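[scheduler] slot 2 assigned
[scheduler] job type: sequence-to-structure, two independent chains
[scheduler] chain ordering preserved from manifest
[runner] begin chain α
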Amino acid sequence: MTWMRMLCLGVGLSEDGVTAMGRRLDGETLGPWMRLVSDVDHEAVAPAAAVLDSGERIRPLDVVDVPVDDTATLMHQAENHIVAEDTPWQLVRRVGRSDVLDALDTRLWRRGESSGDGQHDRMTHLQTFFLDGSLRFVRPGTVDLEIQPPRGGEEPAVRAIFRLDGHRYNLEVIDAVTREQAQSCTVGTHRLDDPLLCISLSKLYEYNAEGYTYRQVTGLIR
């Protein structure tokens, strides 16, 4: 097991569990991306494992020391690191929004395809062969956060609509804080001025003979 320091930029919440991601820190220098995963199928960790030694759940803008057992490349997700789930993550400090601006990327990956719910929100398995990574941190300017009515007893779905590099995107939001806040928000569109977005390519989902990975907003820093 090795301890690594990470600047957290996104914490995604899904039916599989919690996935934290960010940039490795070497001293005060930004290093490569990291995505923290379980040793079970290299997917999300259990919610109880994503808790800091302070008792709080990890969140964007946390600088944390995490116990890493191994790397675990999963197809296009080359940034995956397996964490030791029986060892608490240690909070080093919390930083401000202005402290993470050096981590920004200028664009997403190629536009890709659109699902029935989104716009430029997915890519085929073949398209992922040519990517240089599965995580991005961007500043699109204005973002419209669309909170949709709950369906069948489920929590409200949340989508982020924005323009970046001349293209319009409509992506699913799985950022843990935003998903929780959406449960008490009014259904409809809420405009956000100048948020920072951490965007991840999901694991591969297979439909018929075609496989797709989805662009998901895993961090939303206001």
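[runner] end chain α
[runner] begin chain β
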Amino acid sequence: MRKLNHPLRGFLVALVLLLGIEVWLHTDDFLYRYRSVFAAGRAMDKIKYVEATSPRLIVTGNSRVDNGFDARHVGAILGLSPLETFNLGLPGANARHLEAIFQRLDQAGKLSSGQIEMVVFGLDEALMQAEDTLGYGVFFSDPAALLAERNVAGALTTTFRFWGYAGNLKELREPEKAGRFAQATFKPVEPVGGAASEFQGYRAGFGAGQFQNATQVARQEETAIAPPSPVVAQSFLRILDLLRSRGVKVAVVLPPLLERDVLYLNDSLPSARPYLELAREIAGQGVPILVLDAGAPRDPLDFINAGHLNDRGAQRYSALLGQKLAALWNPADGVRP
């Protein structure tokens, strides 16, 4: 048999390597191994912990939940132990990504009595926006659903993940990330702020720029004036339908911002109109929308930047959230063990 020439051998070796990487990207192992490197990896750390422990109370949303609410503190007011609570806040995530995650939890049988019984969503404008700079959609999307919406590009990125995630893999050019990647290749390395199990998913914010730089904070504030994505909003409404169909108690909390209120509360700006309509639709489905304080401006000592709480603020607002939930879901409703 004639031997393959060198260029063809090289091509076949490269093709096999690419196929191997693509297959690996379709497993949980890649994200979990590199949970200290990529935001989607930290998300997988949280998801796997929830699947393993089935906390009764979950507080979820984006970065304003991640370092904004300590689920242990919230749960204590409801009579729950720390291990019965979890913060599933995912910085940069939107409702579409959360829908895929809750569908996964449902398929695992986790949305039922004695398992996940209560879910609280931290609802800001960004949760309803289609932006996905951190690449969650590559891993947490349904290609069939994307094709049904004629979103061919989205379906391709989640089907061919090495291509879809290439932009995020470029982050490895940063020396710090490259170092963590190399470390995590050979031994477990936990994310900044600790493993999912360490603080039940909560990641305290202690200093400006610790988890978001000034550009990211400014970008998050800029998107507030953009209207919600109809597709993402429908994802959120489907999550509510799914949870209620499984008998899970659901509530929405509006996270505090330093200098303004989220647009769901603001009837003076034209840009708030679609958010007010969405809030009315959510409330019309019987989902309580909780407001924790009198409004902006708030105490600067509670914030690391205009949109995110520090640990002091998180503990204070967690107590307020727990009190609101205790009034909503009292012991007679079966909240306590």
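[runner] end chain β
[qc] chain β: The two ends are 72 Å apart (CA to CA).
[scheduler] slot 2 released
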